[in-house]
Design a protein that fits this description.
Helices cover 20% and strands 19% of the residues. The chain is an alpha+beta fold. A five-stranded mixed sheet has the order 10-21-20-12-13, with no helix packed on it. Strands 24-23-22-25 form a four-stranded antiparallel sheet. Strands 9-11-19 form a three-stranded antiparallel sheet. A hairpin with a 2-residue loop joins strand 16 and strand 17.
Length: 667
C-alpha cells in the first residue's frame, strides 16, 4: 500500500490513512510547550483548543443527531460530519466509531482529540484534498468540509522558509518544509478547508446538491482582499488578520497595527535568530462560554510581551471594533418638516474584515443597530434595537443584565422537542421595512424553509431547505439604513416642544440569540446553563451620536406630498405616520391620491421581483403573503378612489397594503 495514503476527511467517505511511520501518533499540545512556550499559551486560550469540547457545539451537534439521526457515524450519508473539523484527530483515529445517537461526541474523545485543533494536526497538514463529490459538499477545489491531506509523522511543517529550521531532535527527525507544504500552511486556502461548510442536503432554492452553511472563505476568495483593490493595496490572507497583531495599538504610532503586522522574536527556546511569530491565539468573534481552567484567559485584561491582549473577550472586541465604520448619512441638524416623523439615515461600511460581517455560523450570529432618540434630559422619544431585563427560569427576578435578553422585533416560542416555532407574534420593535422605515435593523443571515410560494424562517440548520447568506454586510460596500422616527406621541405629550434631540446609534454584536441557547438548555441542561447564557456577551462595534434641533412643529409645516404607505397588522393599521384606524387610513390614502393595488399593480410597484436591501423585513415575505392570499381568494383588492366605502370584516383580518406615491400620481 502507498505509505503516503491520504486521510479522507470528507463527509460520506470512510476515514482511513496509513501514516508515514506506522507507530507515529498525533502528540498532545503539551509536548510542543517544551520549546514553543508562547505558541502553547496562545493556543491554550484560543477557540481552536475549545472546538471539540465547546458545550454549545456539543449541544447543537447532539440536538441535530437526536432529532434527525444525521451527522453521526451511524449515518452512512454523513459520518462524523461536524467533528471532522472540530476534532480532526478524533476523526482520523476513528474514536467515534461506537457513538450512539443520543451520546455526546466529546465523551469518546481521547486526550489529544479532545484538544480540538491542536499543534501537530495543523503542522502535519500536507496540502488540500481535491476530491470532486458535490453530493458530499466537495467541488474539487480543496475547500470546505475538512478537505485536507494530513497524517502524523516526524516531518512537521512550519512556514519558515528562508529562516533557520528547527534542530534535529526526537520530534524533528526530518524538517518537512518545502515550497508547496510551507506555502499551503501560510495560505487562506488552508483556513478555507474548514471555514467553508457545505451541508450535504440539497438546496431547494439553488438546486445545488448541498446547502452553504458557512461561506467565510468563499466571501474572502471572491472579495477585494484577495486582490490589491483594498485599503492595504495587496492580498490580505486570513492569517494576516487572525494570527497577527492586527487591531492592537502600536506604541510607536498610537494607531492600530494593520493586517499582516507580526512580531519578530525567537519562536523556540533553541532558536538563535529572531523570525516572524504568528500568534496562535487565532483571534475571532467567538469566546469560550464556560468557566473552566482548561480554557484560560477568557476575560483577562493584561497584555502579552507583544502588546496583544491575553483575554479572549478583549481580543475579539479589538477585532470586532476594527470591522465596521458607522456614520450619519442624510440626517438633518435642524428639522422643520412634517410633525409626524423625523428622517434619519445611518451608513454602515464593512471596512476592516476580509469577509462579510457577520460570517461563519452567520445564521446564529446577531448584528443589529441600537438606535435611541432622546431629549437632552434623557427622556425617550424613540428606540429600536433595545433590550429589556426579564425574568427567566433560573432568574425569577431578572438579573439587571441585558446581555442575556432577546431583541423585541418578533416574539418567538420554539419547541424544546422539535425546535419548530410554535408561536410567533410581532413585538414592539417589529421591522416594517420595506413599507415603513422603522423597527429593528439586523444583519444576521437565515435558515429558510420552503412554504407555499415563499419561504419561512426556521431556527435550526436541520430544518432548512436553503441558507440565505445575503443579509450580512458586504465587504467595503456602504449600506444605507433609513429611519422615519415617529414624533406624534412625543408631540402629543409635549405639543409646544422646541429644542434639541440626541440621536445615538450603536452597532452591536452577539454570538447567539439567547432564545436559541435557552432552547438548547431545556434540551441539554448538562451542557447549557443560565450561567453560560449570561456569558454570551454583547460587543459594541461602533457608535455615533448627533444633536438635532427640533423647531416647533405645526400642521402647516407638514409636506402633503410625502410618500406614504401602511399595512394592516395584528388588528391595527400601521402607517408611516402613526397607528391609524381603517377609516383614518382610508382618508389618508384618499388624501394622497392612492389606492390598494391589484395583484398586477402590486407587482408593478416593484415587489414581485423585489431585491431586499439591508434592514428590510424579508422575514415577513410580504409579496408571498399578499399573492398567496390573492390566489386562495382570501383577500380582495379595493380601489379607494372608485366609490369603495370599506372592507368586509373578514377581509380586515387579512394583510392589506397601500403604497402611495407623491400627491396626484395614482399607483
Amino acid at each position: 500500500m502507498n505509505p503516503f495514503a491520504l486521510v479522507l476527511l470528507a463527509a460520506g467517505l470512510t476515514l482511513h490513512a496509513e501514516p508515514y511511520h506506522q507507530e507515529k501518533q498525533f502528540e498532545k499540545a503539551e509536548t510542543c510547550k517544551t520549546c514553543h512556550k508562547d505558541q502553547y499559551q496562545e493556543w491554550k486560550g484560543s477557540m481552536m483548543h475549545y472546538s471539540a469540547l465547546s458545550p454549545t457545539f456539543q449541544a447543537f451537534e447532539l440536538t441535530t443527531r437526536k432529532l434527525t439521526g444525521r451527522f453521526g457515524p451511524h449515518d452512512s450519508q454523513d459520518p462524523t460530519f461536524c467533528i471532522n473539523c472540530h476534532s480532526p484527530v478524533g476523526a482520523y483515529n476513528n474514536e467515534l466509531a461506537g457513538l450512539l445517537r443520543e451520546e455526546r461526541s466529546d465523551t469518546l474523545l481521547e486526550k489529544v482529540a479532545g484538544q480540538g485543533i491542536s499543534c501537530t494536526f495543523c503542522h502535519s497538514t500536507q496540502g488540500p484534498r481535491k476530491v470532486d463529490a458535490p453530493e458530499k459538499g466537495h467541488l474539487g477545489d480543496g475547500i470546505s468540509n475538512a478537505a485536507l491531506r494530513f497524517w502524523p509523522t516526524d516531518r512537521l511543517i512550519g512556514p519558515t522558509l528562508g529562516s533557520p529550521g528547527p534542530d534535529t531532535n526526537s520530534f524533528h527527525t526530518e524538517f518537512g518544509n518545502n515550497d508547496v507544504t510551507s506555502g499551503y500552511l501560510r495560505s487562506s486556502q488552508f483556513c478555507g478547508s474548514c471555514h467553508d461548510v457545505r451541508v450535504p442536503t440539497p438546496d431547494k432554492q439553488t438546486l445545488a446538491p448541498f446547502q452553504r452553511l458557512e461561506n467565510l472563505f468563499t466571501e474572502w476568495e471572491k472579495g477585494p482582499y484577495n486582490t490589491t483593490q483594498n485599503p492595504q493595496g495587496r492580498v490580505v490572507s486570513c492569517q494576516d488578520c487572525h494570527m497577527s497583531l492586527y487591531g492592537a495599538k502600536n506604541p510607536e504610532t498610537g494607531r492600530p497595527y494593520p493586517p499582516g503586522a507580526y512580531p519578530v522574536t525567537k519562536i523556540a527556546t533553541i532558536d538563535t535568530k529572531p523570525r516572524k511569530h504568528a500568534l496562535h491565539s487565532f483571534t475571532a468573534v467567538s469566546r469560550a462560554l464556560i468557566n473552566d481552567d482548561l480554557f484560560p484567559n477568557q476575560t483577562k485584561s493584561t497584555y502579552d510581551r507583544f502588546g496583544f491582549p491575553i483575554g479572549q473577550e478583549q481580543r475579539r472586541t479589538q477585532l470586532l471594533q476594527m470591522a465596521c465604520k458607522m456614520e450619519w448619512g442624510n440626517t438633518p441638524s435642524e428639522w422643520k418638516g412634517r410633525p409626524g416623523t423625523l428622517p434619519l439615515e445611518i451608513i454602515i461600511t464593512n471596512t476592516g474584515a476580509g469577509h462579510n460581517v457577520p460570517s461563519g455560523f452567520s445564521q446564529e450570529r446577531q448584528l443589529w443597530i441600537d438606535l435611541r432618540v432622546e431629549t437632552e434630559l434623557g427622556e425617550n422619544v424613540y428606540q429600536s434595537g433595545f433590550l429589556v431585563d426579564r425574568p427567566h427560569r433560573d432568574e425569577p427576578q431578572g438579573d439587571e443584565s441585558l446581555h442575556d435578553e432577546d431583541l423585541n422585533a418578533v416574539n418567538t416560542l420554539i419547541s424544546t422537542d422539535t425546535f419548530e416555532v410554535t408561536n410567533e407574534t410581532h413585538g414592539p420593535d417589529f421591522n416594517e421595512r420595506p413599507f415603513n422605515n422603522r423597527g429593528l435593523v439586523e444583519f444576521n443571515n437565515a435558515f429558510l424553509r420552503k412554504k407555499g410560494v415563499g419561504y419561512e424562517r426556521v431556527h435550526a440548520l436541520f430544518l432548512a431547505d436553503t441558507m440565505d447568506n445575503s443579509r450580512s454586510l458586504p465587504i467595503l460596500k456602504p449600506v444605507s439604513i433609513k429611519y422615519d422616527v415617529p414624533l406624534s406621541a412625543f408631540l402629543h405629550k409635549y405639543p409646544n416642544f422646541a429644542g434639541h434631540l440626541r440621536a445615538i446609534a450603536t452597532l452591536n454584536f452577539r454570538s447567539f440569540p439567547p432564545k436559541i441557547l435557552r432552547t438548547l438548555a431545556s434540551r441539554e441542561p448538562d451542557l447549557i446553563s443560565e450561567d453560560l447564557v449570561d456569558r454570551n456577551r454583547i460587543v459594541p462595534i461602533a457608535r455615533i451620536q448627533k444633536t438635532i434641533t427640533l423647531s416647533k412643529l405645526t400642521v402647516e409645516n407638514s409636506k402633503s406630498d410625502h410618500p406614504h404607505s401602511f399595512a394592516f397588522q395584528n388588528g391595527a393599521w400601521i402607517s408611516s405616520l402613526e397607528s391609524l384606524s381603517w377609516t383614518e387610513a382610508k382618508l389618508n390614502c384618499q388624501k394622497h391620491a392612492c389606492q390598494l393595488p391589484t395583484a398586477n399593480e402590486y407587482d408593478s410597484l416593484g415587489f414581485k421581483n423585489y431585491s431586499p436591501k439591508a434592514g428590510d423585513n424579508i422575514d415577513e415575505l410580504w409579496k408571498e403573503r399578499w399573492t398567496g392570499a390573492q390566489e386562495k381568494g382570501e383577500a380582495q383588492t379595493h380601489c379607494l378612489l372608485s366609490g369603495e366605502t370599506g372592507l368586509a370584516p373578514k377581509a380586515l383580518e387579512r394583510p392589506f397594503f397601500c403604497h402611495c406615491p407623491k400627491k396626484g400620481v395614482k399607483s
